[in-house]
Prior knowledge:
The protein is α/β, with parallel strands linked by helices. Helices cover 46% and strands 12% of the residues. It contains twelve helices and eight strands. Strands 7-6-5-4-3-2-1-8 form an eight-stranded parallel beta sheet.
Amino acid sequence: MADINLKGMGVALITPFKEDESVDYEALGKLVDYQVQNGTDYLVVLGTTAETPTLTEEEKKNIINLVVTRVRGRIPIVLGVGGNCTRSVVEKLKTDNFEGIDAILSVVPYYNKPSQEGIYQHYKAIANATHLPIVLYNVPGRTGVNMTAETTLRIAREFDNVIAVKEASGNITQMDDIIKNKPARFNVISGDDGITFPLMTLGAVGVISVIGNAFPREFSRMVRLALAGDYDSARTIHHSFTELFSLLFVDGNPAGVKSMLNMMGFIENKLRLPLVPTRIVTYEKIREVLRQLSIKC
């Protein structure tokens, strides 16, 4: 297993669509360039923010190939490979081509609400199916079940290729418990832009960010300052974004960040059903905040 450094700001890439809802590969390529040129530490491909459940297998392969080709090894690429059928995820890990992929992000199984033992057995099977580094992804608001600190720590201690958890439970006490008791080689990554700064003061190593799609330079700077222990400077940047954090998610993700990227001229403001764009009122509020931040839109 190759060493991979996932400290800093990773960005959960969106999938741009054209007006006819086909994937806008040209816009995606430009967005990848924008990330690499503006301080993003690594990219997360085919995560929640990519609207992955609405993509065909062919589209997924094309997106992976485009990102890998465009990045050219300059920063790590983490690929979302998860599901609620353990056997299917294991089969995918054993048979797919992962050339150019540096790590796997795998979400807690959703919908079927496994027990903590079921979650452990699921990740045990995944860890044994691949030599790639694995990042666990706990997001109970989407999966319907919380992976407890005890389960996360059990998995972290038993499987050397499980290197981190993306924690989006919103439970600071739970995250702090993991940070306090984890093995030295295992890291906690924020899965929520809004609590990244406070979580980093407790010992998290960064974030897998949504807002970083639009503001890679500014948000990665906040993360780097926090990693360096310059909390005063990092806090100032954090506070400049607090209004945007709430507006980003009020109509669901990635509707908020897509409206922002649309205002900035990167993409069409298009999502695939069952997701829809932000309401007009949210769109205008985001536009006003961007004006205040002196972003041309």
